């Protein structure tokens, strides 16, 4: 067994990243505590997600409505600052970098730290600390990645946990305010498309909304907007890999809604309101 | 903490969207020469990576660098990803898993 992350049972059971399951397995917790308290989750995150954490909840920091206590990061070490009592690693995972500090109390800590070199990919377990609005990771464990499939696996796990937690909160992630009504229609289309996929029900109207917004997004690309005559329907069909007759129907519908207009024969442009 | 200079993960098909920017990609090496390496991206497109590859070079390598055009990257950082990246299932003998006890 190389690492406990590859043991499917250990990764997905117990005090993993599913806060509701963790609270169910800990019946001794006081009932007055909030829904997620006492469930010390270990959450896989990217550095960008660390930056997006909001204040609130029991520990003071939360993401997707779940209190953040312990986190897992996988990234490349780009800098090491080795002091007597601690060692600080700058870990870069492609979405940004964060400083991870490991305190050295015993010989086993210094052995662990000496094994890490600049340029290595590492897996970091730690606790998020916020010092004067600067976020750092107080590291419990940092070890080199030997099987590089771990990197892809970590990102997939981050995506899965994020989608799971946002679904738990009711299926809608917060979206930036949109004033343009056609943009609002697009955002709505994607939202309902995603939540329907998760609930396992396929409502064809919602799916149509998703495809309509794909076509509209294609016509709103700078290249499409810049062209005088717009884009022809067979180019749209080819680029989006959707059958031509379906594209024609969608474009006719969008034109009837006033979102696109025809320029020359079979060429469409987005109505830049 | 800094998220101002992210490197996007790209394959051959996405490279054209990030020309001039920092990208990272894993390629399967098909040919290695002085000053450049030719390889296949995850979506089976040929990419040229310029720079000095590490010696020895494994079958799979991750490169971090600047995208020059839609099929070439000027690499700054090379990381050997071994010879069995993403290949774990092909190595298992699936018949062993389904044999009756």
UniProtKB/TrEMBL annotation, chain A:
Keywords annotated in UniProt: DNA damage, DNA recombination, DNA repair, DNA replication, DNA-binding, Nucleus
Domain Replication protein A C-terminal residues, every copy: 162-267
Keyword DNA-binding attributed: yes
Localization: Nucleus
Organism the protein comes from: Durio zibethinus
Gene Ontology molecular function: single-stranded DNA binding
Protein name: Replication protein A 32 kDa subunit B-like isoform X1
Region annotation (Disordered) ranges: 11-38
Pfam families: RPA_C (PF08784)
Automatic annotation (TrEMBL), chain B:
UniProt keyword list: Nucleus
GO biological process, one term: DNA repair
GO terms assigned for molecular function: DNA binding
Gene3D superfamilies: Nucleic acid-binding proteins
UniProt superkingdom: Eukaryota
Pfam families from the UniProt entry: Rep_fac-A_3
Entry keyword annotation includes Ion transport: no
Protein name, entry field: Replication protein A 14 kDa subunit B-like
Gene that this polypeptide is encoded by: LOC111310979
